[in-house]
Every structure is written in structure tokens, then in C-alpha cells.
């Protein structure tokens, strides 16, 4: 370090030509330097103004806080790099080499971090187009749960059994995602099995009474309900109940419990899976020759 300091001192103070060249350049570019500084400070103000306008627009569009912060930072740094290049160009420094250097650097980083950049771009698309938000209940692949947060590289999902699953954002943009919270209302499909010996008209009326008693069912008066199919062991009755999204599971569990009580009260059977087994009896006469042959074989061996 001492040798380096000595060399720098010798270059700056012993070689007067360096100082003279710097002085001549400074005075010749004084106007451009002043203009570059003005451009920089005015540009910084304009960048903050644009950033503020973008945040206001995103707030009106009800973007998530994470999306607003992410997009705001990207706007700031992209515009800042452009502003620096404009200021450097004002000083007479050719910016072609800088652009080429940035391009080469970006290409190298892109090749090295291809998957990460894909996740980053996918995260930006999720935040911008909002197929789901933090707090929504979604399903992707074998994972189902509530969205905890949307990060730059991953989306964090909390399952019903309190597991935190980190899914790369690129998988969320390239695979089907089911959003259970997006709509304000949902349809619950109920399937009820009754025995073939039961009166299905009575069973359907009992079901209508159960749904009518549940005030959270929104379409109890005009619900679609009827025999859905004839199963191997039962008559299957289907019903489509419309509820608010937030009431989905509460209504589901309440209806299932109330239907079981109502079926028990009206002696309507919920059949078990059944199999009919036919046992074929073999005639004794057809067995006797085999038994005699077996006896004969034993006598020969003895």
C-alpha cells in the first residue's frame, strides 16, 4: 500500500503535465459540467416524481404492497441508469462503450442466472396481472393452501396443516393455477347416496328442507337438485348450493351434518358398498371318483 501511495503521489504532483491536462479539460468543459449537474439534479427530481405517479396509479389499481415496492424500485433504477448515461454523454464521453459493457455484463449475468431471472420475471408478471394475491386460497399441482407472500423468486403458500411451501414463480406462470378466493360467490357440489329401496322423491324434499333452513345458502329456493346417477349400490342425488366464498367450508360442514340428522329422522338409508357373492355347490357324485383315485394312490405308495 505504501508503494502504491508513493506512485500515485509521484504521478499527480511530480508530473505537472497531468495536472495541466486536467486543468485544461476542466476549464474547457466547465459549461458542460455545469449542464450535466443541472441535468442530474433535475433528472433525479423527475425520477422521484415519476416514481410517485406510478405508486399512485398502482394504489388506485389496488396492487399489493410488494408489487408496488418492486415496480417502484425497478422504475427508479432504470431511469437512474439512463440519467447517468445522459450526463456522461453531456461531458463528451462516448457512451457507446458503456452501453456495450452493460450489454455484455447483462448477457453474462443472464446466462448464469437464467432460472432465477425466469422466476424474477414471473414474479413481476404475477404482481402486475394479479392472478392471485396474498391471502387468496389457491391450488397448483399437488399443493393447496393460502398465499402467504409473493416474493421475487418464490411464492410462499401455507397449507391447511400449517406447512410452508415455496413454489418458484416460473411454475405458477407455466402451470394451471386454481384460485378459490377470486370470485365473491362459489358453488358447492353435494352428492348424497340413498338406497334403492328409499323413496327418492321424499329424499329430495328432505334435502330441500335442509338447504332452506340454512340461511347462508343463497339459492335455496331455485337450487338445482335431482338424481345425478344410478350407482352400483345407491341412487346418487346431486345438489348445487351457491354460497359466499368466505362461508364455503362452514356451510359445507353444516349441511353434511344436518343432512345426516334429517336422513336418520326420516329413515332414509345411506348404503354401504355391497358385493353379492354366489357360492356354487359341487355335487358329491362328481367328487367320489377323485376321492377313490386318491385312495388308490395312497395304497400303492404304502
Q: What report would you give on this structure?
A:
The structure is a single chain. This protein has 302 residues and is of the alpha+beta class. 57% of the residues lie in helices and 18% in strands. It has three domains: 16-112, Orthogonal Bundle (Helix Hairpins); 132-179, SH3 type barrels, CATH 2.30.30.60; 185-265, 2-Layer Sandwich (Alpha-Beta Plaits). It contains ten helices and eight strands. The protein starts with a helix and ends with a helix. The model is unreliable at 295-302 (pLDDT under 50).
The count of helical stretches stands at 10
Radius of gyration: 39 Å
| Helicity range | 55-70%
Q: How many DSSP-defined strands?
A: 8
CATH fold naming of the largest domain: Helix Hairpins
Topology, pairings included?
Elements: H1 2-14, H2 16-28, H3 30-60, H4 65-90, H5 96-112, H6 114-129, E1 137-140, E2 143-150, E3 154-159, E4 164-168, H7 169-174, E5 177-179, E6 185-194, H8 200-213, E7 224-230, E8 235-244, H9 248-265, H10 284-301
Antiparallel strand pairs: 1-2, 1-5, 2-3, 3-4, 6-8, 7-8
Helix pairs in contact: 3-4, 8-9
List keywords for this structure.
302 residues; alpha+beta; SH3 type barrels; Alpha-Beta Plaits; 3 domains; three-stranded antiparallel sheet; 10 helices; 8 strands
